[in-house]
Amino acid sequence: MTGSEEIRKMVAELLSEQLFAVLSTQGEQLLHSALVAFAPAADMRQLVFVTPRQTRKFENILEHNYVSLFVDNRKNDITDLQRLIGVEARGEAEEVDSSYHNYYKELFTAKFPQLNWFMDSPGSAIMKINVRRYDVVHHFQNVSVLEIQ
Asked: What is the CATH number of domain 3-147?
């Protein structure tokens, strides 16, 4: 297995195992970060989350759609230093088009069946991030970039 295959596998495992991530959006002048539940597409080209439309993150995405989503596997223990993996996904976020609504709904509900009510709420938006790249930090100080094409 090549180095990039190992990194891809590491990222895929982290994205499927972790339930929550920190989404960072940009307002007019300030950054905003929020926890979101998310699900990855099998090819890792998209990440899906759901948010109420009446939130700062949704408003920010409408203004500036370039976002960052940070996922890690920390347990808040000093031993994390050697086993910690942190991944930043960068890309453009947008509300899912109605013609693809069922595909992304199934993707999200497969990971979060208990959030079906939230996804079906009239005030909620199914969002996807079209990932351009993943920046990966592992084993304390090793940094890798995984470009998505």
From this structure: 2.30.110.10
